[in-house]
Prior knowledge:
This protein has helices spanning 5-31, 34-39, 45-61, 67-91. By secondary structure, it is mostly helical. The protein has a domain at 40-86.
Amino acid sequence: MSILAPITLLTWLLWLTVMVLGIIALVDAAMTPASAFLAAQKATKQLWVTLLAVAVAVTAIASFFTILAVAAAVVTILYLVDVRPALRRVRGDSA
């Protein structure tokens, strides 16, 4: 077993995690009404869906340690920790 095997496995798991989270964020944004984005005073639905779709595409085709892949991960994390909770508050979701 190579000394790089654990690093390769860790990189793959990190890539898979970012990909799954990106898909979850994209589906959530696509299913949220546009009015919720305005009520939460966040950017438009069209912008978030576009950003997240590009993030998923970049994650799918880019090596994880490229600057584009890192940017894709940042967009996904930003949506999940800032925008999504604000949208849930506006919609009245408790979970």
